[in-house]
Amino acid sequence: MMYILTAGAGSSMSYKTKDLIFEGDGTKFFRRVAPNSWWGLLEQYLRDNYINCSVENKGCGGAFSYQINKYLDALISIDDNLVFVLMGLNDRKRINGMKELKSNCEHVVDELINNGKMVCLLTPTPSVHSNEYYTNRIYHTDEVVGILRCIADSRKILLIDNYKYIMEYLAKEKLIIDDIIYGEDCTNDGLHPADYVQKLMFQNLIRVLQI
C-alpha cells in the first residue's frame, strides 16, 4: 500500500470529505478527494495497469510540520509500505519555520524508517511571485526545497524533485510558472498547482519510480 502525506489541493474536482484524519490545536483536518491531483492520477494509473497496489491519501492541507510530526501515529498504518511525504510550505509563515521543518521532517522520516516503511520525499512546485511574496511569507519555497533535498540525501531516501522538474520544464518551453499553474475549476491561488502542473508532477513521479 502507498500512503500519501500531502493533500493534493489545487486541482479540479478536489474537495474535502467528512472523514476526519486528526484534530489538533483547535483545527480539524479532513481527508481530501482529488482525482486530478498527482496522487489521484497515480491511483488511476495503478488500476489501469493492473498493478496490485492501493493508494490512501492522508494529507492534511494547511498543517504545519510540527502537527504532522505530533500526530504521525494518526497518519500511518501498519499496512502501508511506501509513504510519500510533502511538507514545509506552511512553515514559511512561522518565525523559526525552516528550523522547525528540518527537525520535524527528519523525525517523521526517521520514525517511518524505524517502523519499516519505505519513504519518499517530494519537493513542492514553484509558485507565482505574488503568492511567494505575501506579507506572511517569512521564508520562501526554494528554502523549503533545499531542506527537503538535504534530508533526502542525508537519509539516503528517494526524492521526487518536483521543483527542479517544473523549473527545467519552464526553461525548456520558455514559459513562467504563471503560464501553467492556473486551470479551469481549480483553486487558482498561484500556490496550489492546477491540473496541468499536477499532471507534470505525476509524470515526474512515474519517471523516478520507473513504473
Structure description:
This is SGNH hydrolase-type esterase domain-containing protein. Helix 4 (97-114) links the parallel strand 5 and strand 6 (118-122). This protein has one domain (2-205): SGNH hydrolase (Rossmann fold). By secondary structure, the chain is of the alpha/beta class. The longest helix is centred in the middle third of the chain and has 18 residues, at 97-114. It contains 8 helices and 7 strands; from the N terminus they run βββαβααβαβααβαα. The protein has helices at 38-48, 65-70, 72-75, 97-114, 129-132, 141-155, 162-173, 195-209, and strands at residues 2-5, 15-24, 27-33, 55-57, 82-85, 118-122, 158-160. The strands form 2 sheets. It has a 5-stranded parallel beta sheet with strand order 4-1-5-6-7, sandwiched between helices. The protein has a two-stranded antiparallel sheet with strand order 2-3. The model has no long low-confidence stretch (mean pLDDT 94).
What CATH first level would be assigned?
Alpha Beta
User: What order do the SSEs take from the amino end to the carboxyl end, as H and E?
Assistant: EEEHEHHEHEHHEHH
Class by alpha and beta content? alpha/beta
CATH architecture: 3-Layer(aba) Sandwich
- Range of helix content: 40-55%
